[in-house]
Design goal:
alpha+beta, Butyryl-CoA Dehydrogenase, subunit A, domain 3, 19 helices, 57% helix, 10% strand
């Protein structure tokens, strides 16, 4: 396991504190066991799932159930996050994240798998009583029971706490009686149990373990969807559903703690899944570009195609760096606590809620970019169902809605950071005040011998630019900042780019410390990304400054923003050609 990587940073602290490359978990830290798990999941995808892709897409749910149970029986892939005490494997978080990445090539199956192993099973792992764990976890680990998660309602999508479903205690006090209607429930067509959220007596938002066989539980017809067509998505109807009183999950009135923290885990796993899907799309594009002839040459030889391939790979590599950095932090924190204590596990997961939202938003938008470019590389063939990129394109779109929309997550990123600062949990205000005091200072000279010295400076200044404009926005609007959603989301965009820049830079520096024959290629990759990202930060910063100040004050801070976002020009065309050339030579995503 990756025990040497410690959770030295608190959640959100990356914005104000520099990290050492050795304190960041990256794919280069995968152990032999991680590599074996990756290979095992990859082989299962290639041997069992890809050959059945057409049947899966035709929504052969019996086949999906068969494959899930085969994954459990032959490879224990459903048991990774279940503790050994309950007949699971009890592996670390990188292990389950690696599997989520490797199974993502067929989106419909990946969603079915993820809904069971993640949001369907983990609520019981972290919040169940000992009796609930003994009763359900062994069967969930073996695939004897398949799970679903029922949160969304017609009136409560992004606003989960607006749920109308109710739970009341029966007269004999032996059962909860649940009534309500849950929408968009993944796996509902075949799930044996549901994690259901309802308000006790119409007020206390709580969670329940509801078995399909309980009286009053009904499942509606399958939804007709744009993408992930092979997954099951139905309405769950609860009409005086009788749920044993002991099936209350966690504490009454604390259902939001379960819902939000399980979604945090879902967010970083979704991010990793997007990385896997992007790698698959890039691999298909590399093969196609080498074979497709236009004007008497393979299209892979054209600069326009090479630029697309390089940018797709750069964004995928950065997304991977962000996702596994976050996974490593959560895993390290969980290793420090008693995971059998829901309170301790809750705090460990909550600590990196900001990073989970960042990974969710950035990675899902990365994948949308990659699959869109994949269709473009395939041209007219990309619009045909005979080629897989058409499916990648449709399947990708739901990810920006899953696990909280990207708009909601952007609001959460900035909002959670500010709340932590006001509680004294994050020294954000002190760091911001320091930035204001430095506005008239001159930058130190770069050390020409230091590796990636300018990029280190850019990342440091990107943090300062973000803190400056976010601080101005907070001063301008105070508590009313939450109503200025455009400003809050622009600040989130800056924060996300900082996380991406630093995660990628630290990964390259770690690779440099270990040594790699491909180091020069990674340096080109991170330089291309960082120099582009600082321009994005500048644009978002200008947007915020235009809203929060004017006149001489605006000119002063705009000058400061220009100083923070200053960078040299790169020959990024040549660098991207080198990156594309390396990929085309390998004929696979091998970064």
């Amino acid at each position: 396991m990756a025990a040497e990587v410690q959770a030295k940073l608190k959640g959100g602290e990356f914005l104000i504190t520099a990290s050492d490359p050795q304190d960041v978990f990256t794919p280069e830290d995968f152990t032999e066991e991680h590599q074996m798990i990756a290979q095992m999941a990859q082989q299962f995808m290639e041997r069992e799932i890809l050959p059945q892709c057409e049947r899966i897409e035709d929504q052969d749910l019996d086949l999906t159930v068969e494959l899930l149970r085969k994954a459990a029986a032959e490879l224990d892939l459903l048991a990774i996050d279940v503790p050994q005490k309950y007949e699971g494997l009890g592996l670390d978080k990188p292990s389950s994240t690696i599997v989520a990445e490797k199974l993502s090539r067929v989106g419909s199956f990946a969603i079915s798998y993820g809904a069971h192993c993640g949001i369907g099973t983990l609520p019981i792992v972290y919040f169940g009583t000992e009796e609930q764990k003994q009763q359900y976890l062994p069967k969930l680990a073996k695939g004897e029971l398949l799970a679903a998660y029922a949160l969304t309602e017609a009136t409560s999508g992004s606003d989960a706490l607006a749920a109308k479903s109710t739970a009341v205690l029966s007269e004999d006090k032996k059962s909860w009686v649940l009534n309500g209607e849950k929408l968009w429930i993944t796996n509902a067509g075949f799930a044996d149990l549901f994690i259901v959220f309802a308000k006790v007596d119409g007020k206390d938002f709580s969670a329940f373990i509801v078995e399909r066989k309980f009286a009053g539980v009904q499942v509606g017809t399958e939804e007709k969807k744009m993408g992930i067509k092979g997954s099951s998505t139905c309405i769950l109807l609860l009409e005086n559903a009788r749920v044993p009183v002991e099936n209350l999950l966690g504490e009454k009135g604390k259902g939001h703690k379960i819902a939000l923290n399980i979604l945090n885990i879902g967010r970083y796993k979704l991010g990793a899944g997007c990385v896997g899907a992007a790698k698959a799309a890039i691999g298909d594009c590399l093969s196609y570009a080498g074979e497709r002839q236009q004007f008497g040459r393979p299209i892979a030889e054209f600069g326009a195609i090479q630029e697309k391939l390089a940018e797709m790979a750069i964004r995928t590599w950065i997304a991977e760096s962000m996702a596994y950095r976050t996974v490593g932090l959560i895993d390290a924190r969980l290793r420090e606590v008693d995971v059998d204590d829901p309170g301790q596990a809750l705090k460990a997961i909550e600590e990196y809620a900001v990073e989970c939202s960042i990974v969710k938003v950035w990675c899902t938008e990365m994948l949308d970019f990659v699959v869109d470019e994949a269709v473009q590389i395939f041209g007219g063939n990309g619009y045909s169902q005979e080629y897989p990129v058409e499916r990648y394109y449709r399947d990708s779109r739901i990810n920006r809605i899953f696990e909280g929309t990207n708009e909601i997550n952007r609001l959460l990123i900035t909002g959670m950071l500010l709340r932590r600062a006001k509680k004294g949990e994050l020294a954000l205000m002190q760091a911001t005040e320091q930035i204001f005091s430095e506005l008239t200072s001159f930058p130190e000279e770069l050390d020409p011998e230091e590796k990636l010295a300018e990029e280190k400076r850019i990342v440091e200044n990107a943090k300062k630019a973000t803190l400056m404009v976010a601080g101005l926005a907070s001063q301008k609007y105070g508590e009313a900042l939450t109503d200025e959603q455009e400003v809050v989301m622009a600040a989130a965009d800056m924060i996300m780019e900082v996380h991406g820049m630093e995660s990628g830079l630290l990964r390259v520096l770690k690779i440099a410390q270990k040594g790699s024959k491909d180091l020069e290629l990674y340096e080109k990759l991170i330089r291309c990304y960082i120099h582009d990202a600082i321009d994005k930060i500048s644009l978002s910063g200008k947007k915020i400054l235009g809203s929060v100040c004017e006149g001489d004050e605006q000119r002063t801070y705009q000058a400061a923003l220009r100083k923070f976002c200053k960078h040299s020009l790169l020959n990024s065309i040549s660098m991207r050609r080198n990156i594309a050339g390396a990929l085309l030579k390998a004929q696979e995503y091998n970064l």
